[in-house]
Design brief:
17-stranded mixed β-sheet, 23% strand, disordered N terminus, 15 helices
């Protein structure tokens, strides 16, 4: 027998002996080999599952329309009410009307239980600036008295633009003495602009936003538009982040870049908040300006406006006090700024969108605004389906009303299309989107089964009421501005 065979027999016998003792050398080897195979198979399966998890959503997303918005759902059932301040002496031959801003402020103050945060440009609720006994100032003085009373009971925080030496500060001092916490935001040093925002956040669940300043004239002598939203914690939390940014800047000499994560938002023009407003499915977000004050996720106000204009399918209606395709400040430096102007002309030409602008004229209006408005109004030709129209809105004044400074003007700052309602706090010139702090509420209610009219429909009705009223005059190449504006 060969040596190899002998060795093989010897090995087999040894294996048999060890096996009979229960201590086989081959069995452990097979056991560990099986464990290794199972481990490898498990790793492969886990890898395949991970790839499936990562790739399938991407494949599905790539198959969606590029403009299909991703939404974040909010379970709050919110109630939004459009608000107006109609100046004394202005009457419309129309059934269109809404609760007053004065009523909404009173309501918010009566409901406040724990917190009130106000972002504001300036404070003249007590008529300290005119040194008169104007009777229509009483509504503002009532609001001021309630604010003083509530400042000793709940947490009241006020972020206000750093006042100039010439501005009255009695209101602010009264609030501080009553227990309110006030911070001046020095936007002039931070961005060369101002804090022009006007909003309230109450108990972290109710909000007000709109054109009205903390000024008695905003309640009785100036035409204003805004919105109050009740029982909407999702929206209040998000607006609260904008307030917290102002609050931080009240004690900072620089703007964070980037902003810390607690100021970030998930809600913007691409990923709006999905919630119920007045029983209608709504997609909502808040924009802010300038871009340097926008934390991660926040849509800058200019981008919001351009997005709303581009989203329109039939019409774009704009009601703002000032409209200028320029930078207004400093006055010594002339700079052209046509971001919005270009978009309006583009959609009117490329997509035959009907564009209407309702612009104000009063004793503080810059004369340079009108050549630009005439240029826009000249984009009108039925054969080419070009339709841009401009009207000037004048708030009439009695001799005594003319004596009230900074009054008798349409101060609205909103836009409405066939798809979206936009309610802002800024005038429409370059400064307000580049340097100045402002905010806006954007509401899309294109798919709704509610029998109640939508916010968008209500805002459209306000615009059309004003557009067709005797206070509006078409602007064209032959318009006599001195006659229209009573300049």
């Amino acid at each position: 027998m060969s040596t190899r065979m002998k060795s093989g027999i010897a090995y087999e016998k040894m294996a048999d002996v060890e096996s009979s003792k229960g201590e086989s050398l081959l069995k452990p080897q097979k056991y560990y080999r099986c464990i290794l195979i199972i481990t490898c198979l498990t790793a492969v399966l886990l890898m395949m599952f991970s790839l499936q998890t990562l790739l399938i959503p991407s494949i599905l997303t790539s198959g969606l329309k590029k403009n299909a918005p991703i939404t974040h759902t909010c379970s709050d059932t919110c109630r939004l009410v459009l608000l107006e301040s109609i100046p004394v002496g202005v009457e419309f031959n129309s059934s269109v009307g809404h609760p007053s801003i004065y009523q909404a402020w009173r309501s918010l103050l009566s409901e406040a239980q724990s917190t009130l945060d106000i972002a504001s440009f300036y404070w003249t609720l007590t008529n300290e600036d005119t040194h008169t006994h104007e009777p229509t100032a009483n509504l503002g003085e009532e609001i001021m008295q309630e604010l003083v009373e509530i400042s000793g009971k709940i947490s009241v925080r006020i972020a206000v633009n750093t006042p100039q030496d010439s501005q009255p500060q009695r209101d602010i001092q009264m609030l501080i003495d009553a227990g309110a916490d006030v911070r001046d935001v020095n936007m002039r040093d931070l961005t060369s602009g101002v804090l022009h925002t006007k909003f309230w956040v109450v108990d972290k669940k109710h909000i007000y936003i709109g054109s009205a300043n903390m000024d008695w004239r905003s309640l009785t002598q100036v035409k204003e538009l805004g919105a109050v939203v009740y029982d909407c914690k999702c929206l209040a939390d998000d607006l609260g982040k904008i307030f917290e940014a102002y609050w931080f800047l009240g004690e900072s000499k620089t703007i964070p870049a980037p902003w810390p994560s607690q100021y970030a938002t998930a809600f913007n023009k691409d990923t709006p908040m999905q919630l119920q407003i007045n029983g209608s499915d709504s997609r909502v977000y808040l924009s802010s300006s300038p871009p340097s004050l926008c934390a991660e996720g926040r849509t800058p106000d200019l981008q919001a406006i351009v997005s709303v204009i581009n989203d329109a399918q039939k019409f774009v209606y704009i009601a703002v006090m000032n409209y200028l395709p320029t930078m207004e400040f400093p006055l010594s430096k002339r700079r052209y700024w046509a971001d919005i102007d270009t978009e309006l002309r583009r959609v009117a030409y490329e997509r035959t969108i009907h564009v209407r602008l309702l612009i104000s004229c009063w004793n503080s209006t810059s004369a340079v605004m009108f050549p630009f408005l005439r240029s826009l109004a000249s984009v009108q030709d039925s054969k080419s389906n070009l339709d841009i129209q401009v009207k000037i809105f004048i708030v009439p004044s009695s001799p005594s009303q003319k004596e009230i400074p900074f009054a008798r003007v349409n101060h609205n700052k909103y836009m409405v299309t066939d798809r979206v309602a936009y309610i802002g706090t800024s005038n429409w010139s370059g400064d307000y989107f580049v340097n100045t702090a402002g905010a806006a509420l954007v509401v899309n209610q294109t798919s709704t089964s509610s029998s109640e009219s939508t916010v968008r429909e209500q805002l459209q009705a306000v615009f059309e009421r004003d557009w067709d009223s005797p206070y509006s005059t078409p602007l064209n190449q032959d318009s006599n501005l001195e006659q229209i504006c009573e300049m």
